[in-house]
Amino acid sequence: MTATEFGEYIFNIRDRGGLSRPAFSKKWGYHPNTIKSYEKEGRLPPVEYLAALSTETGESFIGLIKRLLSTGPLSKLDSYPDIEKLFDEMPMLRIDEADAAYGKVGEGDTHFMVDSDAMAPTIASGALLTCDHFYSFSQIKDGAIILLKIEGNSTVRRVQYAIDNQIILSCDNDKYQSTTLSKEAFQELNVLGIVRFTLNPV
To answer: Is the pTM value of this prediction over 0.85?
Structure first.
């Protein structure tokens, strides 16, 4: 499938869903010209856009990802992640909905969509995360990436252990500052999960 054919494919999905380009733009924040470039000009959309399209139309998110991975230059890759095995058609939650998911985490892996670039380029905005359930702070190894809640906001940070029992919560994106905490303060944090796998937008 070419990029142009993929654009026609997602255009038909949106059109069948009865959602006009301006209406989709207003609801999801994509400029109409950006949507047009995805549908008519051969520009491949990010995963976040496909998640929005799936939410609006009921089209299989896994199916959209599979189509994307078989499109244009991506079709030349030797292999991709086993999308079905990783996500098993489980609903994707925006990272700011982590509270709602917290009660479900103990039932197994939980999946989130990141809408921040604080951990870019490791975890880009629009990336999908698979998080393990968090049981104790002994699970968190040096260099681990955790999903946590700070002052009412859910976010992702890398954990680095320093001397004198200091813990650094760092961002891979240099635009954001790191935070240094004592071990005691660190253990007071509301950790929602430990990031096990990320799928960044293409």
So the answer is: no
